[in-house]
Design a protein that fits this description.
Elements (H helix, E strand, L loop, with lengths): L2 E4 L2 H5 L3 E6 L10 H15 L4 E6 L4 H12 L3 E7 L8 H8 L3 E5 L1 H4 L5 H10 L3 E3 L7 H15 L9 E6 L3 H9 L5 E6 L6 H9 L7 E5 L10 H14 L8 H13 L8 E6 L10 H8 L1 H14 L1
Parallel strand pairs: 2-10, 3-4, 3-6, 4-5, 7-8, 7-10, 8-9
Antiparallel strand pairs: 1-2
The chain binds pyridoxal-5'-phosphate.
């Protein structure tokens, strides 16, 4: 894993050592944390002769996208249970999933709400007996194992640079949980929630129960709600790109860095703190946002973004 030192004016001003772990560059198909989360499930399925993988997601889901593309490459059939109407079927995320052979099943929001319900899962298993059912976001116990490996890869990069803090954006909390379990020594994990969701803490607690090392803190970073974007956020994304050459995603990492910089400015991190921020990927998420981005920032912003994405995705 490439871990890059960042040197923006704010970082220098507050005497911090900030690095970014570039999981966004790790895999051309399943960028970022999804690669680490899914890898053990793909291995489990292969070892158990399971031919099909089934999972859940919204119409712009990074997880659905990553699952479809990596599973196809590994020779699995895939089924995506998608929240909402089939009108989304031709958005860039789902088009890519379908082109990778994923069978899309659109369900109502009411049905989607049952995705973690035991009886509902049993019914689905009966309907698709040959499939391994993977929860939303890929967040099963195997994903925690995968993200323990992610922590290891971060901590053994760059000749084992020592980090005091790992900072990570969070949805289901599985990635954060894996980092918490895999953190070394006195390292703490700072978790930035992309959702307005009070149950995140309990989910993380459940995931990390078997782990010894448990130093973490949760911060709210939804900025108006999950997947909501605004003019200030998009301006921030652009400034960050100009300062660092790194494009953030609109849903997770942009909000993580925005909150982290606010914290830096009020002295949340003491001088000399060595922070490693995870770029968990998610750049494909921009493709479904053209209309919203153009409305907030105009065509020229979108065209600049498109050019960067064309060189990245
Ligand atoms: C899915 C995703 C996350 C959140 O991961 P969880 O394990 O669900 O908390 C963070 N960043 C990006 C880019 C993602 O796609």
């Amino acid at each position: 894993m490439i871990v890059e030192r960042l040197n923006t004016a704010i970082i220098q001003q507050f005497n911090l050592e900030v690095s970014m772990a570039r999981a966004d560059q790790i895999h051309p198909l399943a960028s970022g944390n999804k690669y680490y989360k899914l890898k053990p499930s793909l291995e489990y399925a292969k070892d158990n002769n399971i031919k099909c993988l089934l999972s859940f997601g919204g119409a712009f889901s990074n997880h659905i996208h990553a699952l479809a593309l990596t599973a196809q490459k590994a020779g699995f059939d895939t089924i995506g249970i998608i929240r909402g109407e089939a009108q989304y079927a031709d958005n860039p995320t789902l088009r890519a999933a379908r082109n990778a052979g994923m069978k899309l099943v659109f369900v109502s929001r009411e049905e989607y709400r049952q995705r973690a319900n035991q009886a509902y899962i049993e019914n689905l298993q009966n309907e698709y007996p040959s499939c391994l059912i993977i929860p939303e976001g890929g967040s099963n116990n195997l994903a925690i194992k995968g993200c323990i490996n992610l922590a290891k890869d971060i901590n053994t990069s760059n000749n084992n640079a020592d980090f005091d803090v790992l900072a990570v954006a969070s949805g289901t909390g599985a990635t954060a949980a894996g980092l918490i379990c895999g953190a070394k020594g006195t390292q703490s994990v700072q978790v930035y929630s992309a959702l307005k969701d009070a149950s995140l803490e309990n989910r993380i607690k459940r995931f990390i129960k078997p782990c010894a090392n448990q130093t973490y803190q949760i911060h709210q970073a939804d900025y108006g709600g999950f997947a909501k974007i605004s003019q200030p956020l998009l301006e921030f994304v652009w400034d960050w790109y100009e300062d660092t050459g790194i494009l953030l995603d609109p849903i997770y990492t942009s909000k993580l860095i925005m909150r982290l910089i606010e914290q830096v400015k009020v002295g949340f991190f003491s001088r000399g703190t060595r922070i490693c921020v995870l770029h968990s990927g998610g750049l494909q998420g921009w493709l479904g946002m053209e209309q919203r981005v153009v409305k907030l920032m105009g065509h020229s912003y979108w065209q600049k973004l498109e050019r960067i994405l064309a060189n990245t995705l």
